Every structure is written in C-alpha cells, then in structure tokens.
Amino acid sequence: MSTKRTAHIISHTHWDREWYLPYEKHHVRLVKLVDTLLEKLDNDPNYRSFYLDGQTIILEDYLQVRPDQKGKLEKYIQDGRIIIGPWYILQDAFLTSGEANVRNMQIGHQDARKYGAVAKVGYFPDTFGLVGQTPQLMRQSGITNAVFGRGVKPTGFNNTVSDGDYESSFSELMWEGPDGSKVLGILFANWYSNGNEIPVDRDEAKAYWERKLTDAEKYASTGELLFMNGCDHQPVQLDLPEAIQTARELYPDTVFIHSNFIDYLQSVERSMKHELSTVKGELRSQRTDGWSTLVNTASARVYLKQMNQVGQAILEKVAEPLAAIAHALEAGEKYPHHLFTYAWKTLMQNHPHDSICGCSVDEVHREMVTRFEKSRHVAEAITADSSRAIAEAIDTSSFEGTGKDALPVVVFNTSGWERTGVVHIEIDALRLYFRDGYTLEEASRLAKEADVSGRVLVDEQGHAIPCTVEDLGLQFGYDLPDDKFRQPYMCRKVKLTFEAEKVPALGLKTFAWVKRESAVAPSSLLTGDRVLENAALKVTIAEDGSFTLTDKKSGRTYRDLGIYENTGDIGNEYMYKQPDGETPLTTRGAPAQIRVLQDTPYQASFEIVHEWEIPASADEKLEEEQRDLVYFPHRKAQRSTRMVPMTIRTVVTLSRSGKGVEIESSFNNQAKDHRLRMLFPTDLNTSVHQVDSMFEIPQRDNVPAAEWENPSNTQHQQAFVDVSEAGAGLVVANLGLNEYEIVQDGRNTIAVTLLRAVGELGDWGLFPTPEAQCLGTHTVRMAIIPYSDHDMQASAYAEAYQFQIPWTLCQTGVHPGRIAPTYAPFQWEGGDMAFSSLKLNEGTGDLLLRWYNMRSQSAELQLSSNIPYYYFYKSTIMEEHGERVDTDAAGRLSLPVGACEIVTIGMK
C-alpha cells in the first residue's frame, strides 16, 4: 500500500522558567522531568528523541541541581536523542532589543556547541508576535526556517483555534523580511500541543487520531503532518513508543515516526507541491478580532520594562563599546568576555515572554528586579574600569595652561552619532587619603575648608563653558586598587552640570574645571512667563499644563501636547479592557500649578503639578467576574465611585542645542484597575506611521484591519513612534514605555501608556497579582522631537536613539597620553544607517561593528578607523569571518548596503 501521509511526532516540553509558579517551583518540576527523560532514554531505545524547547538555559538550570548527570546529558545530546538550541532563552522579541536577541542566539550556540550539535531551528513556539526582521536574523544565523505559534493565525482563550480568513493558505508558508530574506515558516496551526498525551488504548487512540489527523490535514500543504507531543511544563509521555505502535496498527496507510524538527523540515521541503503563501514583515495577529493578541503585556508592570531598557542600554551601548575601545587602545584593560557573558545571561533570564511581559505571579517579578540589578551592577563596574583606563590614555597636559589646579573631566559619547547634550558629574575638588597620615578629624576639617570658588569649566582650547556648580560638601570615599588593600579617603565633592557640544560618535571630549575668572555671560532660554525657546524650538505652557510646540524650521505648531488620560482597566496582565461606556478622564482644562524649575544658559525647565482625583478601583463586580473566570472581553464591571488623589508632577525641559523637548513625569499611584497615558495630538494627515522595532523602522497602519473588533488598537514600540506627512513629522521617544496607540480622534494622536494597573494574571485560571496594580511612586521620561524633511527625520531618529543611551563621564588627572582630548576611534557615514553595537569577538579578538539600514532603499556605508588593523571584512550576527572588504588609499571602507540590511563589519 502506498504511503499517503506521514505523522511526525516530536516530543518536547514548552518550559516557561517562571510563570504561574515562582521560578524555583518550576525548577523542581524541571529537575524531575529531565531525570525522568534520562531514565527513559537509558531504558528504551524506541524512545528516539526529545526536543529541549530550543533554549540551552534548561541545561544550566538542571545541572545546577544535578551536576552529576552532565556526562549522561552530553552522551544523549551527542547521540542526537536530546536536541538542544539554538537560543539561550525563549524571549519576547518586541520587548527586548535587537542586540539582546543577537546575544541570545550567540550564547545559545556557544553553550550548545559545548555539548554537541546546535539545532538549526528558528523556534518561537509562544512568542507574543514576531518582529519583521526575524527572517534576516535566522538567515544570518544559518537557519532557514521559523517555527511559531502566533502572529499569522488567531488563537483564542486557552489557545483554542479560531476559523476564519487566514493570511496563509496552509500551516506552511514563506515568510519574507523587509530586506528580502526568506525562510520556510511552520505555523503551529493546531498549537504546539496537538500531539499531546497520545492514547495507547485502541478505542481511545482511534477517536484521538481521527480528530488529530483531520485537524492537521486541514491546514497542511503536504502529507508531512506535524504533531507536537508536549505542552507547557508537560512531563515526558513514557508510553509514547507503545502509543505510536497502536497508531501504526490502526492506520497502516500512515507512517508514524517519533521524529525531530530537522527530519520533519527536510521531509516538508522534499514534499512541497503547492505554491505557498508569502507573508511579509511583522506577524502581530492584525488579521484577528484583536482580543487575544497579548499586546498589552507591553504595558504590564511598566517598571520592569524601564529596568530592562536601562540594563540593555548600559550593556550594549555603553559597557561593550567602552571596553572594546579600552582594549583596542591597549589601555591596560582586557576585554572581559566572561563578565559580559555573565551579565548578558543574567539580564536575559528576565527576557522570556512570561517574564519581561510582566504576565506572571508576583513572586516571579520580585526576583526579576534582583536580576536586573545584578546585571546592571556588572555593566557599571566594567564601564567604570574601561572609562577610567581610556581617560588615563588621554593627553590632558594642555589643560595646565588654561588655568590653575586643573581638574580634567572626560565626556564619553557611546552612541553612533555626534552628540550634544546636558551632562553632569560629581567630582572631587580635594581628596585626602588616610594613608598619607591624615586623621579622620584632620581630613574632614581640611576638606570642609577647601575653597571651591573662583573656578570655571573650560574646553581644550581654554574657552569657558557655561556650568552650574553644586557644592555637595564633605564626603567619604575609597579606592579598590588591583595591587593593594582598599584606600579610604575624605573629599570635598562638587557636582558640575553643563552642555557638552559636538562630542564625536563613539568618542570623547575632555574639559577641565580650573581656577580662573569666569567670562561666561549670563543668558536664558525663558522668553516669557510660560515660554521656553532655543534656535530651533519654542514651547508655550498652557494653564492646564499642556503645551504647544513650534518647529521654527517648518513653522509647524503642535498643540495640546502632554495632556494626561485615565481610564479603567478590567482586563489582566495580558490584555487591556476598558469598562463599557466609560468616558476617559483627562487633565484638559484642569488648572495646574506651574513654576520655573531651572533657568541656566544651557537649559531651562518648568514644573507642572496636577492635583487630580481618579476612581480608587473597579467596582465589586470585577472581583466576582474574576472568580467566575469570565473572559475579559465579556466583563461588565465599572469603576468605583470612591475617588483617591493622584498628584502628577511634570517637568518640561528645553536645552540650548536641543532638537526636542524632554518630559519627566512622576506620580504616586494609589488607585487600582486603571490605565494612565499621555497624549500628543499631531494633527498630521496620514493613514500610516513609523515605529522603532528590532533592527527596523516598520510602517504600520493607523486603522486596524476589518476583522479587528477590540476598541483598543495599542501596539508595541521600542525607542520611538513617528507620525508624519509631507514636510512635517513628530517623533515621541521614550525610555522603557513599550506601548502606544495612534488614536483615531481626527488628530492622529500619539498616546503613550505610562502605567497600567491590574489585579490578575489572566489566561487559563484565576491567579491574583496584587503587585501588578503597581501602587507607589513612578517616574517616566519621554522626548518630543519635531522635524521637517527626510534628512531631518533621520536626525530625529538619531536623537531618539541617543535618548536611550546615558552619557558616561569620568574625572581624571593632568597627565601625558597617547590620544587627544577630543578623540574618536572611528569615523563613519551612512545616511540612514543606524549604529547598533561595537564589541570584541571572544574567539578571534576581532573588533565587530554593526549597523542596520533604517530604510527600504539601498545605502552606502563609509568607515575609517584610527585604531590600527590589517583589514576589514563583512560578517554576520554570528560574527563569522566573511569576505574581505577593500579600502581606498586612505584606508576608508565603502560598502553598499541593501534595503533594511543588518551589516556587521569585522576588523582584523
């Protein structure tokens, strides 16, 4: 009898490290599962293989408790019976940076290779949507497929499949990224548990397979049918060989195989006869009713997203480039690969979808805070060591002629563009070490008596720079030398705040605080009672605290910016649900207290205070509906009539050279079951907008597809969102505020979520999460950047990216050195190329620089180096040595770059 179909049964367990149970309780179950798996593999050769969920951290977690089993694990991995990789963890891609996803793939491969082969499977079983650049990232990782469960086809409550008008004709499809990269997409059309708990009993098996085979054939384009034997935290099915034998006896015309992904994918590729649908770009479930996209995990527990943004930025945009430069300058600091791997792993342990998405029980997210801090502390230590080493290599001797007793200060710009901005640093005006014989009393007295007046900040040419000095008084400090015991001291500390102009990309600029008469003329950016103004922008504050922003170049004025909106939220950590019929509360027209907060030659700001009242919570019906497991779209709860105060303090700041207006908002949340947003009406005529995502600026529709029924159309962002028309555009940048909406109010208003407070996890049961109400104090930051043309748009994007990156400053001494007071190791030009990373390859010691093309048009990257090298070569995100790239007589590289291409350049 000829074979009509093959049933590929792949054993696996989808392992959320933490979710509805805290990490350690899941950990205990993981140890039991792997113990059972190893015993099964020992005793049953017919149990062919098990896929370990695509994430190598499972091996770390298991061996942390069972190190004695490492040899056995290695044996079965090398034998191909346990299949591992390619990731370190299964991340949420929309909420983690491009570089974090690259490190995830790199570290997953590194760890997997220690045991054996890496599974080249683009595995995304339960990622809450997929970014558009995934095909290119897979291709650059040597992976030609993507296996996923969400984004193209709807799944409903508890992962039930909905029927409807699908984007793909089959569960197999071609997925094309914005650069043209293509991979074979495999959609879990019947979810990643469609082969779970296969019966051995013949009658049960008959009913089971009648249903399962029909369901699989409904979507499959070939006779190669996929059955995933496992689910979330699913134990190993020990009688699977017997169940497969029963199936073979019942269906002799079907080949049942205990399979694996590699064999299955090869079989599908060999058997394809139909032309597959091509799906392009992002997979965000936009062709659904909008109620099960899980998009509002972008605003669940916003404090976690803010900590993640800080952690990612300091690792990839500060510590790595500074460590690479320090190493390349041979400044005495070796590149600390081991520390970076540890810091990245610790950070990425917070990146699984149930972790960074904020959709777990409270215990999970408490532990995440500690991990964020641990990773950040390592990055801060590397940053301090690297910046100090680079500073010591700078020739600061020229400052001896700019005034007396020079105290040099180095400003590092670790972004990929020249940068101007307001910076601050705490420096020691006088330091007295106890090792020099000072008693505590003497050191304290001398430090207190030190004269910190009569000084001015100067650049390397001796030009005075406007600077604000805050005397911080007597402080204790200490050094931790590499070659001796700790060295305590007393010091007189001051804080310097000033505008650092035109600090080169990936470079530094040195200033000095010297004894000299000041020649800085006073000036102000305040031009009216409630008006801020510089050469490019004018900001006028209204009585209700909203403001008008005028872009002087285009003449465009944006009105009613910065109004707060508050609504009820009777949803859960996954999805927002506004009470039916509710009218949002806003601060529009509500009088605010407004005062000048800062007035210096380089920066000015207003403080705006709203004394507001909002409902204390949802009414009692919400708790009843939660207990009854009422699906959140069907809930009828309303907001309480009891009100609680909400005082919001907003600081609006404009810098002398600023291209945008910065906003800092702080509040003490004492209400439950609600959402707080800030509104930015654009009044721009457009049906689309652009938004920052992973290595891409995708264009999205302002209005959802016809299938969309959810009144809310919130979406993911990373650094910014941009609404524009011909000749004008408005970019709203953020720090860790990953949710926005283009509100269809006739004004194309950009609404950014500042806080979402809910009381339950959601999904498959009732899991109360009182800490997800986010009671307490919060501070958020944004920047509003207008622009007038294409070139200015790219500049606005660069400004938004720089907003993500903290300045790094370091005090140093007067000394000779090998590099100039203003220095950059690289110079590059690339039009719409966005710089992403600078790091060292652990295996080769080569410097690796990465950019991505923000546009769907080709570009040209030009690069030159002040660091000695043999040659440039083109690499991938996996940092393999690729083809050499020729340079001109001056050593300048010129490389054509494709539309939306991610480009990595190696320096040998």
From TrEMBL:
CDD domains: GH38N_AMII_SpGH38_like. This is Alpha-mannosidase. The lineage of its organism: Bacteria, Bacillati, Bacillota, Bacilli, Bacillales. Pfam families: Alpha-mann_mid (PF09261), Glyco_hydro38C2 (PF17677), Glyco_hydro_38 (PF18438), Glyco_hydro_38C (PF07748), Glyco_hydro_38N (PF01074). Belongs to the glycosyl hydrolase 38 family. SUPFAM superfamilies: Families 57/38 glycoside transferase middle domain, Galactose mutarotase-like, Glycoside hydrolase/deacetylase. The keyword Metal-binding applies. Keywords: Glycosidase, Hydrolase, Metal-binding. Coiled coil: none annotated. Residues 297-372 form the Glycoside hydrolase family 38 central domain.
